[in-house]
Amino acid sequence: MNDSDQAAELRNSAFLRAARGEEVSHTPVWFMRQAGRSLPEYLKLREGVAMLDACMDAEMITEITLQPVRRYGVDAAIFFSDIVLPLKAVGLDLDIVPGVGPVVAAPVRTLADVEAIPDLTPDQVPFITRAVQSLVAELGATPLIGFAGAPFTVASYLVEGGPSKDHAKTKAMMFGAPDVWDALMRKIAGIAADYLAVQVQAGASAIQLFDSWAGALTPHDYVEHVQPHSARVLAAAGDLGVPRIHFGVGTSNLLTLMGEAGADVVGVDWRTPLDKGIAAVGDHAVQGNLDPTMVFAPTEVMTARAGEIIEAGRAAKGHIFNLGHGVIPSTNPDQLKALTEFVQSYPL
Hints:
By secondary structure, the protein is α/β, with parallel strands linked by helices. The protein has one domain: TIM Barrel. Helices cover 49% and strands 10% of the residues. It contains 17 helices and nine strands. The chain has helices at 3-11, 14-19, 40-46, 51-54, 58-72, 85-89, 111-115, 126-139, 151-160, 168-176, 178-202, 219-225, 227-239, 255-260, 274-281, 299-313, 333-345, and strands spanning 77-78, 94-97, 101-104, 144-149, 206-211, 244-248, 265-267, 285-287, 319-320. The protein has a seven-stranded parallel sheet. Strands 2-3 form a two-stranded antiparallel ribbon. β2 (94-97) and β3 form a beta hairpin. α5 (58-72) runs parallel beside α8. The longest helix is centred in the middle third of the chain and has 25 residues, at 178-202. The two termini are 29 Å apart.
């Protein structure tokens, strides 16, 4: 197959067609966090290697991203990275602590703290470019999804100094120091946009903007303090000509707004019935949304629920099957293989 034939096959892949709202031969499927802790080959490769070190090693990124594609035969690969990797790349003092998550040594408090954060340039992440180029060559007609954390979630880590259940410090800045908040969100949006651009320019076929903590917001606060910044990231990715997926956790009250931020595909987590999610997003494709714990049910129970989701997805402009959040580390890979085969063979 020559390069032009492969490019045409890639463009006509089920995943990209569904993302564009076009007719597909089967419902495409991939899994958030498919490249990760549920795979024994991943655990073996990561032995003794810190998370951020793995995210900055082109060969390791490539291998980890490819592992679930080989094992499951999913319709897309997701670039192996972490929400805070771009911040590490620009020089911030942070680490991912096992069992805790990202921890920031000096949380952001003032405008001077924001101004001290450098912008991201491609020469700070050469390992990203090398990994994407290597992956595109290996994946052939299987699309690669670029990945970045959304501004609100990344800002929350920077302000809180680590994971938070109530995001009290984040909201205190948002409401009490809106000038600092706006500057921080603009800074992070710029970094996210540039980080995604590196991935797309190296060959990624789509992007996903992941907002882990947006569900902590009211619609009013999302519109006023968050949506414009996510929209900036999504607009920059759209200018590069790739489909954009926007996913948040616990965001049933924000789905319409997340679509309006500029997404082509809106991710629906498992808490929201897919038919209600489709009604909320309107003229956008959807992604989702099997409860991640359903993989622990008997296979026939899991696939029956998956069938219901595929049926509901018929009403959407386009439907990409996924879990309603990431793969749980204790998931049996054989169940994901069975789920992949079921979705891909389900008659449309």
